[in-house]
Specification:
The complex is a heterodimer of chains A (about 300) and B (about 525).
Chain A: H1 2-30, H2 38-56, H3 59-83, H4 88-106, H5 132-137, H6 141-159, H7 161-171, H8 173-178, H9 183-209, H10 221-231, H11 236-259, H12 265-283, H13 287-293
Helix pairs in contact in A: 1-6, 1-9, 1-10, 1-11, 2-3, 2-4, 2-9, 2-10, 3-4, 3-9, 6-7, 10-11, 11-12
Chain B: E1 11-20, E2 23-33, E3 38-42, H1 49-56, E4 64-69, E5 72-74, H2 79-85, E6 87-90, H3 102-108, H4 116-129, H5 145-158, E7 163-167, H6 175-190, E8 194-199, H7 202-208, E9 211-216, E10 219-224, H8 231-239, E11 259-268, E12 278-286, E13 290-294, H9 301-309, E14 320-322, E15 325-326, H10 332-337, E16 340-343, H11 358-366, H12 371-374, H13 383-396, H14 413-425, E17 431-435, H15 443-458, E18 462-466, H16 470-476, E19 479-484, E20 487-488, E21 492-493, H17 499-506, H18 511-520
Parallel strand pairs in B: 3-8, 3-9, 6-7, 7-8, 13-18, 13-19, 16-17, 17-18
Antiparallel strand pairs in B: 1-2, 1-4, 4-5, 9-10, 11-12, 11-14, 14-15, 19-20, 19-21
Classes of the chains: A mainly alpha (about 300), B alpha/beta (about 525).
Amino acid sequence: MDITVNILMTIATAATPLLIAAIGELVVERSGVLNLGVEGMMVMGTIGGFGAAYLTGNPWIGLFAGIALGAIFSLLFAVMTLSLATNQVATGLSLTILGLGLSGMMGTNFVGLPGERLPNLYIPVLTDIPVIGRLLFGQDPIFYMSIVLVIAVAWFLFRTRTGLTLRSIGDSHTSAHALGIQVIRYRYLAVVFGGACAGLAGAHLSLVYTPQWVENMTAGRGWIALALVVFASWRPLRVLAGAYIFGAVWIGQLHAQAFGIPVPSQFLSSLPYLATIVVLVLISRNKRLTMMNTPASLGQPFVPDR
Amino acid sequence: MSVQENAVNLLEVRGLTKIFGSLKACDHIDLAIAKGEIHALLGENGAGKSTLVKMLFGSLEPNAGDIFWNGQKVNIANPGAAKKLGIGMVFQHFSLFEALTAAENIALSLDDGAPIGTIAAKARALSYSYGLPLDPESLVGDLSVGERQRIEIIRCLLQTPQLIILDEPTSVLTPQEADKLFETLERLRSEGKSILYISHRLEEVKRMCDRATVLRHGKVVGHCNPREETASSLARMMVGNEVHAVVRQPVEGIDKAQSLLEIVNLSRQPATPFSIPLKNINLSVRAGEVIGIAGVAGNGQGEFFEAVSGEVLQQDAASVRIRGKNAGGLTITGRRLLGAAFVPEERLGHGAAPRMKLSENLLLSRHATDGKMFVGTGGTVNSSSIYSAAQRIIEVMDVRKSAPDPEAAALSGGNLQKFIVGRELDRKPAVMVVNQPTWGVDAGAAAHIRQALIELARSGSAVLVISQDLDELFEISDSIAVMHNGELSRPLPIAEATFEKIGLLMGGAEPGHTEHAAEVA
């Protein structure tokens, strides 16, 4: 029984950073901006989280440092693509490269040092409920933040006027501008929110997942988050489903490899990607709904003619 | 300007100017709109109407001039500021979000923060009271153009504006939808609202509008009461009359000349929901003559050019005949090999590959027709003969450039157009079809291109020119036909054609109307 609970908890730990980074990018893309720099912003959150926690000895300060560093880093992207109207794809890619290099440089003295871990929650009575207790009430704090984020973002996008405005900008920034909506301002806020989420996701890696610093520690999770957003056709709850399917298959194949199942390990390692894509493609097979949810102005720079 | 001198005008504009690069889109515009009037803004395409209203709505910033609202000088910095003043706008190119519902679209332009359900109910009630039924839950992407315009109008009315600007509202409507719109506008006027009505359709303006301001080439050329004018006199104000420099010798014995390009019963279904179907077009262009096709943009000219040039093939091979041979089923290259040449409307990306050199662009369009000269044995490209041919074209057409063989995108629009036209003329084609030959080209280069087209015709070729510029067509054409709503009128010989007649045909009036209007006047 304990093993099952442990496995389920590791699934949540594996899924959480993907979920947070993807939900942030979802808001960014819903506003019509394609930020391919998720990996870069995420790794900045990882080094920021580790560094601040190590230097202060307080993992909570590390958490906020990770969020802040991701947000600040995304601001660089926002200034380039929104104010200077540079190509979003190229700028996002260079943000990733810059983030990986910069974090490596910042972290040279941290390699091999023991990090601070954010403690799991313990609520008397509730956490002691068998099985469910630890799963629901004994996780790390970032897990709860991720669930709150998904619900809040879904509510914001589809139940509030501001969310409607954000979606309208993603659908047609020229129409939004014609209505007097401050396109650039909304997009700035969306990009910075996405950066803060990526930073939080990155901090999760060095404060919860494996409390240490290794160069390139995000190991492509930012890219998986980006893919999740697209395959989930920009719907928050589908991103949640996608992240957990990925997490589950990821953990499952690790255990399968450990048991020595006679299947090539390369195939097992590719399973999470395959499973996630297959499931999300099946959910999103309604073409009309997918078309409706795709932000039509995604990736197009907006320059109002004045 | 004599109407209501004493009363304060709702909106007054003095000396409003907007400059794009070297083009004065609006040049010291004066305009006054009284309370409770429908004011028409008339002008050809490119006269500056849309630029003017974009400045009134705050989406463009004027370079000079003042705007007064209820006698107070105002600065309309953005569309939000215009809405606050009480200016509502129904756009020519809709500003709707296709992935959202009608109610969500309406909610986005309201600032009161009411729940979507309340807004939907209000929109439904208002739409039925104006006889413009609307389902607020429907997705905009699923709606017809007329229904989309209803959303725009309802959205505008829910903001309770004092002034409603409608930019070419009927250009996308069926006649029945347009009638409905006119009823709505008259009701709004009776409620004391002012309307600025932009159109080039003279009958509509005469029917509804109390006053009119006429623009031509970015300048106000007159204010009038459209009810006291005839459609012909309005057309004359709109189109203007200017002296031309291009020399056109009258063509003789054209009746006996051979017909080189024949269009026979050409019809085409619309390719997209927004394109125009072609209806049974017949036209014959004979050796030695230039025929012009006039028409307001979006009446099927683009679709017609695609069908004639072979960008889109026809089912009926006999619907396009080049030098007596059926060409309807042939590709562009096939039609070129029959002796035809084509110049499309878009220069970059259509007429020329932007990032390729002029000589490479020359090879791209003429590799089949001039294969012997440009392509050597074994399919190798004969660079030196292509280069010298490109230089010859550059010299003949006086193309101004910064390098010996620059990329197409490095040339100015006018110079690139001279090269593209020259590239085709250099072949001495028997049939030449040109769409918008001088769109966005400065006057000097335009005259050069026009003269070259006339000379090609006089040397025995058939030339067909599609243009929105009436001055141009009158300069170069021997006959002018008008395309309206996918139909082509009978070509009028230039001796019989007048600006009034052509202008009326462009507005959709029947040719018989001209005489009738003249009698009334």
